[in-house]
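TL;DR need C-alpha cells for one chain.
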Amino acid sequence: MTWERGREVVDRLLGDGEIERVEASNEVANRLLSAAEAHVRLAGMGLAEDPEGALQLSYDAARKASAALLATQGLRATSRGGHIAVVDTVRAQFNDRGGLPVFGQINRLRRRRNDTEYPSATTPGVTPEEAAQALGIAQDTIEAAHKLLDSGRLDTYT
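>> reply
TL;DR here they are.
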C-alpha cells in the first residue's frame, strides 16, 4: 500500500530532513508502544502529587505511540525535525482516519509540555484535572496506534 493521505506533508518533511527513511521495524514499534504504556501507568500514579510530571509523561507516551506507527512505515524523526515532525507526520496521515481524531490533539500536549519545561512568569501551573486530560489523550493515542497496527494496513512508506 502506498500512502496518499498526508503524502504531501510526509514528502515535505522528508525533503526538509525533518524525518528520514529507516528500515521498517515492528520490533521498534513494539518497544515504543511498551514504553508508552509504561509512561501512562506512571503518569496515572502522579496525577495528584505531580501533575506537571504526569502531563510530561503523558505527552511522551502519546509521542512514542505515534513514533511506533512511523517505525512500521520505515520513517523516523531526525534531530532536525524532532518531536514536531512526529506529531505533524501522524496528524497528516492518521487524524480522523477511521474515527481516530486523537492525532490532532497531540500538538496541544506538546505545546503545553514545552510551557512546563520552559516556563515564564505568566505560565500557569498544571492542575490535576489538566494532567488527567493529558493522560486520556495519551491513552487514546496508544489505543489508536494499536488499532492501526493491528489492522495490518500499515506498510512501508514508499
